[in-house]
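Try this one yourself first.
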């Protein structure tokens, strides 16, 4: 049975902590890393309703998007409303973890998913916050097994260079080893020096994929003990950051879309939240509305942006990046004023719905990884 730490490791493969903004708390916030996990609740925020659901489902762990411990706590008095939820969770012996901006920014995370649903092509982060670290992985493989190991590493995310995957380089050589008592060598005999025809198979992997790449490589390699090296590289990895901006086409393939069709595309994403089992609750209710730039509804444009959560502060960036439209969770008065002034078609869907729409995807991805690890874990999504 997996532990809280095991499930956290799975989530961190999907939302590597290095993608989070500096100072954004993430990971385990409450509970015991060694505790066993049978049932997991996936939700946006820590609320009384989420704790009720956790109790009803006998959940051992709640995976949240927004960290409930965000600012340094000055006390844990039970007469403070926010503290009451944390104290109640502690009393219920349920662990809580959260990822926030790491999940927003990570490849395949909320904003990548949103960009795909919005039909953005050549999408890049709207606000660049960093570049992913790259690593070189070099592994020594007996001749004849290089294809198996290359395939496994490539499938796990190694060897991506531009529009190419499974990129490796292989140099032949001779490996030597002497198996000691207790070993069961794939080649040679215990106590004798073995010389094996091997290939030095090298590739690159981004930091977020490195653990999966190494696990896949070790699983595919025939040796009992695998010799491999991992080096940090100075090469620049892919950009990471918040929101996405890209080209947008009409559904018929023409290289521009009208504001009305863009709005329909947004409406097609968020009503799916309303179709959930908690459609009646307030924050999940669809609230797609144009809050600025309505004059653009009949105009054609070919560049647009999306940002989950509070994308108001990216209105200026979206305009500078050439986007004609931005869909986001929420904005402030001055953000809307700026958008109106500059003719940016601004569509708001509500902070919660802009992120909650991804929670079923997160649960599915977690479930697949848990199943692949051989863990029997129940996952339930709470859409607030
Ligand atoms: Zn948020």
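Now uncover the answer:
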């Amino acid at each position: 049975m997996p532990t809280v730490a095991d499930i956290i490791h799975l989530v961190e493969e999907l939302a590597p902590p290095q993608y989070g903004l500096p100072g954004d708390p993430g990971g385990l916030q409450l509970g015991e890393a060694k505790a066993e996990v049978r049932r997991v609740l996936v939700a946006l925020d820590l609320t009384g309703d989420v704790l009720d659901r956790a109790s009803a489902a006998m959940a051992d762990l709640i995976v949240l998007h927004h960290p409930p411990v965000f600012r340094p706590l000055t006390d844990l008095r039970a007469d403070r409303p926010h503290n009451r939820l944390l104290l109640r969770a502690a009393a219920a012996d349920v662990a809580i973890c959260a990822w926030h901006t790491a999940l927003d920014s990570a490849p395949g995370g909320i904003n990548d998913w949103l960009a795909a649903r919005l039909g953005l092509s050549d999408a890049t982060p709207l606000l660049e916050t960093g570049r992913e670290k790259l690593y070189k992985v070099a592994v020594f493989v007996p001749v004849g097994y290089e294809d198996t190991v290359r395939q496994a590493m490539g499938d796990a995310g190694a060897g991506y260079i531009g529009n190419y995957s499974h990129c490796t380089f292989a140099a032949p050589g001779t490996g030597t080893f002497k198996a000691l008592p207790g070993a069961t060598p794939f080649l040679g005999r215990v106590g004798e020096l073995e010389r094996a025809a091997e290939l030095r198979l090298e590739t690159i992997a981004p930091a977020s994929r490195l653990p999966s790449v190494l696990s896949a490589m070790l699983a595919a390699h025939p040796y009992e003990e695998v010799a491999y090296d991992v080096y940090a590289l100075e090469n620049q990895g892919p950009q990471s950051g918040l929101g996405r901006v890209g080209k947008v086409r009409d559904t018929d393939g023409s290289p521009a879309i009208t504001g009305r069709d863009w709005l329909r595309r947004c409406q097609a994403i968020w009503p799916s939240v309303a179709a959930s089992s908690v459609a009646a609750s307030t924050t999940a209710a669809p609230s797609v509305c144009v809050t600025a730039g309505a004059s653009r509804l009949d105009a054609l444009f070919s560049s647009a942006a999306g940002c989950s959560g509070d994308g108001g502060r990216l209105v200026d960036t979206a305009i500078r990046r050439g986007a004609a439209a931005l869909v986001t969770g929420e904005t402030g008065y001055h953000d809307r004023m700026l958008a109106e002034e500059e003719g940016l078609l601004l569509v708001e869907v509500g902070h919660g719905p802009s992120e909650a729409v991804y929670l079923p995807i997160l649960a599915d991805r977690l479930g697949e990884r848990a199943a692949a690890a051989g863990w029997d874990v129940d996952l339930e999504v709470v859409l607030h």
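Discussion: The chain has three domains: 4-102+358-382, 110-127+242-352, 133-232. Residues 126 and 244 are 5 Å apart (CA to CA).
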